[in-house]
Each structure stands twice: as structure tokens, then as C-alpha cells.
Design brief:
13 helices; alpha/beta; single chain; globular; 416 residues
């Protein structure tokens, strides 16, 4: 379908946030164009751990991580790694990250995230009905696995913080862990169980369902890389890859690629890239009943249709470098501690998470013009927060809701 020359709303980025926003706006009767250089839903939205982590209000930067940061960054096999070739590029971001890991900042960031996460699952349930995706969702909880008592003790602050925000969590004995996940080897590990959590059994199919639901509502799709954004008196002009279009409103939902467009809109946002990895192993029968995260290894093992996906860890290092085989090998060694009988992985993947120092996304209008709305920077929570982000964007465009609610997610919060 050829892209129109003018449109009411153009959404730059067709990941989960862009798809959810397109569906929401189209359901409200708006004319929507979705623009992405790649197949919709094929980036981090496809390659994640498949968890809807309504419990994950603890920001990546926090006092526990800050205490371990030198060790984490210097150990190439730690769950939190840095490509040293990118150090000078990353240095300003790391300084901000350290500041946001202090206790007061951590609590403020957690409070902001908790407010969004409290509405995440109801928003997902609404979208599941809209896009006919119930068969792809499981509400079977998520399990954190603590194989060392010291790790469980270090996580006490996170448990207390989540409890203070009303997150449903249950501490499990080793026996209770074994009863919940009999396929795990007996490690004597205790657990932290989040019974309300949901997970996706096939992210690729889910993205296709969302796209189909959006296009059935009239959403147009253009395959193009947008490189130019200019605010004009009567709209916003977008350009790139042979595409020229003018929109009444533009939503920037381009994930890790959003920084340059936000800058052209008038907002300097310290967005960096977390390089995320996954491996998949074919399985005749599910090895687990739900996503399981061994916290010392920093990844999730998620049962999906016909396979086990092992996804996670954090590698800071930009968009340009190829996949780091050491990170893939780390996942492979880690999962074999639990399932040594696994064969060779059937697929491996590298994708890019949009990461901000305070772990909060940027949601709200640009300071340059209310015709440009930001919806990016969700880090590890893009899948979880996509439907509630879509609702907030739709409210902004319609002039509904309380603008002060979005203050914690404003682009200009980084000015101070």
C-alpha cells in the first residue's frame, strides 16, 4: 500500500509500542500511518523474554547494582557488561546511571514505574480481546530463582520496595520451588514467585496478530527509515528513504533509534542502547511451566510453543557492533546448568533495547511542539508497558486525562 502524502497521525516505529498505539488510535477512529524500515514487530518486540512483568518496578540502576558495578563491568561474563570500545560514547550515560542508582533516585524511579505497571495487565487484557490473542497468553506467574543465600539477602531491598507498592509476591522454600517447577534439577534454591504475571507463548505470532488487527481497522503501513523531522505551523513533516509525508501529529516510538528524531523535535534525551540476546532450543514438551529467572545469571528461561527461549543479560555498547559470541556462549552455558540434555540451539538473536539512565520511558509531548509525542525508552519493559503507553498517547491526542500524570516521564526531566 502506497503511503499517503498527508495523514492525521504518523507513528515512527512498528515495534510493540508502535503497533499497540496504532491499534488504539485506529479503534478511536483516527487515520494512522505506521512507518518502519523493517518488518513490524521484528526487533526487540520479537526477541524478548516474552514476560509481562507487572512486578518489575525496581529500576535497573539501584543501590545493589551500584555496589557491584565495578565488578559487573570488569567481568566479561557478568550479567551486566560493557563493550569497552564504546566507553567514551557511554561515559555521560554511565554518570547519569550512577546518580540514578542512589537510594532517593531509585525510590522515585520505582514509584513512577509502579504507577504505570499497576495498569499494565488490565490494558493488556483489553488489547488481547481487541486483537484476538487469548490463545497466545498464559497467566501462570513468573519465578525468580535464588541459588545462593547471599543473593536472596541482597535482594531484600527490592522485595521491600515492591511490597510497599502493593506488588503480589510470594517467597518460596526449595520444596515449594520444586513443586512449582518439577522439571528443574534439585538445587536447593529458594524462590520469589509473582503469581499475577503473564507471558507470551509466541511473540512473532503475537506481533502479526497486532498488525493484522491494526490494518483491519484501517492502519496503513510504510516500509521506510525516517531520518528527517521538521515541525511546521500546520503539522510535522517527515522524510527519509524516499518517503515524504506530512502529519497532524507524529508519535516517535522507534525504540533504540528514537534519539535523533527526538533531538530534531527539540528534545535532548540521554537514550542509549542495551544489546539483548536470546537463544532458542527446540523441545518436544515444555521443560518449565512458566518463565524462570536465575537471578545470579541474569536471564529468563521461558517456555514457548515448541521451544525454550533463553533471553536476557545487559550489554551496553551501541547499535553498530555485531553480535558478541561471548554473550551467546554465556546464555548457552547458563541454561545447561539446568538442562544439560539440551541439543544445539535452533536460533540465536541480537536486538536493541532503548535504555535510559533512570529506567523510566519517555512518554509525552515534545517541548518543541505538542504535535510530536514521545513513546520510547521502555528498556526491559516495552512488551509489558505497550498497551498502557498506547492508552496514554491516545489520551494526549484526544485532549483527555491529566497532563501532570506524565510529568515523571517527560523528556525535559533530564534538564536538571
Amino acid at each position: 500500500m502506497a503511503a499517503p502524502e498527508t495523514v492525521e497521525v504518523a507513528i515512527v516505529g512498528a515495534g510493540i509500542v508502535g503497533l499497540a498505539t496504532a491499534l488504539r488510535l485506529a479503534a478511536e477512529g483516527r487515520e494512522v500511518l505506521l512507518i518502519d524500515p523493517n518488518e513490524p514487530g521484528s526487533g526487540a518486540s520479537f526477541g524478548n523474554a516474552g514476560t509481562l512483568a507487572e512486578y518489575a518496578c525496581m529500576p535497573v540502576g539501584n543501590p545493589a547494582v551500584l555496589r557491584q558495578l565495578p565488578k559487573l563491568l570488569l567481568d566479561p561474563d557478568s550479567p551486566f557488561a560493557l563493550r569497552w570500545a564504546a566507553f567514551f560514547q557511554l561515559a555521560p550515560w554511565l554518570v547519569r546511571f550512577v546518580r540514578q542508582s542512589l537510594p532517593a533516585a531509585t525510590r522515585a524511579n520505582a514509584m513512577a514505574l509502579a504507577g504505570l505497571l499497576a495498569e499494565a495487565l488490565p490494558a493488556w487484557e483489553e488489547m488481547v480481546k481487541e486483537a484476538d490473542m487469548a490463545d497466545l497468553m498464559r497467566r501462570n506467574g513468573c519465578l525468580y530463582l535464588y541459588r545462593r543465600k547471599s543473593d536472596f539477602a541482597k535482594a531484600a531491598g527490592g522485595r521491600a520496595l515492591r511490597a510497599g507498592f502493593g506488588v503480589h509476591q510470594e517467597v518460596l522454600t526449595p520444596g515449594e520451588v520444586a513443586a512449582l517447577e518439577p522439571g528443574l534439577p534439585p538445587t536447593g534454591a529458594c524462590g520469589l514467585y509473582f503469581p499475577d504475571s503473564m507471558n507470551v507463548t509466541d511473540p512473532k505470532t503475537l506481533m502479526r496478530r497486532l498488525l493484522d488487527a491494526a490494518t483491519a481497522r484501517g492502519v496503513s503501513v510504510a516500509q521506510a527509515a525516517i531520518t528527517g523531522l521538521r515541525v511546521e505551523a500546520d503539522g510535522v513533516r517527515l522524510s527519509g528513504s524516499g518517503l515524504r509525508i506530512k502529519a497532524n501529529t507524529v508519535v516517535i516510538a522507534a525504540g533504540a533509534q528514537s534519539r535523533a528524531l527526538a533531538m530534531q523535535a527539540g528534545d535532548s534525551v540521554p537514550l542509549e542502547t542495551e544489546r539483548g540476546y536470546h537463544l532458542e532450543f527446540p523441545t518436544d514438551a515444555p521443560l518449565l511451566n512458566r518463565p524462570v529467572c536465575p537471578v545470579d545469571l541474569g536471564f529468563y528461561m521461558t517456555p514457548m510453543n515448541g521451544r525454550l527461549r533463553v533471553a536476557g543479560t545487559v550489554e551496553l555498547g551501541g547499535l553498530a557492533a555485531p553480535a558478541n559470541p561471548r554473550r551467546l556462549a554465556l546464555l548457552d552455558r547458563g541454561v545447561r546448568q539446568f538442562f544439560p540434555q539440551l541439543g544445539r540451539p535452533s536460533s540465536e538473536w541480537l536486538g536493541f533495547r532503548p535504555s535510559l539512565p533512570d529506567s523510566r520511558p519517555v512518554i509525552g509531548p515534545s517541548r518543541g511542539s505538542r504535535r510530536v509525542i514521545h513513546a520510547f525508552g521502555h528498556g526491559h519493559l516495552g512488551l509489558t508497558l505497550a498497551p498502557i503507553t498506547a492508552r496514554l498517547v491516545a489520551d494526549l491526542i484526544a485532549g483527555r486525562g491529566d497532563p501532570d500524570r506524565l510529568a515523571p516521564f517527560a523528556a525535559d526531566r533530564f534538564d536538571a
